[in-house]
Structure formats: structure tokens, C-alpha cells
Amino acid sequence: MSALEAQRPRSTATGTIAGLFAMMSIVLSAIGAGLGFILEVEAHPVRTIPVAVVLAIVAGRMSERHQALSRFALFFAMAAWVVGMTLAVLTEHPLV
Asked: Is 73 among the domain residues?
């Protein structure tokens, strides 16, 4: 480890915002996938999960440090899309 690496800040503002975006993406995906039914929130997977996908992509592009978290958020959103749409059809809730 060189002296320059030791002086480098641990986290930047952009990295922090990217991490928050990735976590917001995971939360929105969970709400769209069915957690909204449990929390008694109108969960519309067609509205919430595309927003979660965009947040995950933006988070991945903002910071290299949080790319693994944003990749997980993106895959979680894809799985949440399938689960949320299936639950919405089976329970006859509105998709939009």
C-alpha cells in the first residue's frame, strides 16, 4: 500500500448516492414483487419495477465501488418482475 492509497477517501458523495440508489431499487423491487401485498400497499409491478431497474442501472454507472450491489439489484428486479406479475395475475389485482 502506497502513501497515496492511504490518503484516498474511503467513500465519495457519488459512491454514497449510488449505494442509496441500489438499495432503493431493491426496496422498490421487493414492494413490486409482493411485499406490498403484505404491507397493504397497492403494489403495481408494472409501475414500480421498471423504476427499480432504472435506479439499479444508474447506480451501476455512477460508482465502480457499488457495481456489485447494483448488479444484484438488477437481477433482483428481474426476478421481482416475474414474481410480481405472477402474483398480480393470480390474485386478480390490477397490473397498472
From this structure: yes
Sign of the CA dihedral running 47, 49, 52, 58: negative
Residues 6 or more apart in contact with residue 3 via CB below 8 angstroms: none
Helix axes 67-90, 13-30, angle to 10 degrees: 20
For 8-66, the pLDDT digits (tens) are: 667 788 889 999 999 999 999 998 888 766 666 777 788 889 999 999 999 999 988 88
pLDDT at 95: 66
Alpha helices, DSSP H, located in the chain: 3-7, 13-30, 36-38, 45-62, 67-90
**Full residue range of the structural domain in which residue 79 is found:** 42-96
Q: Are 80 and 33 in contact (CB under 8 A)?
A: yes
- Number of compact structural domains in the chain: 1
Q: What is the pLDDT of residue 89?
A: 84
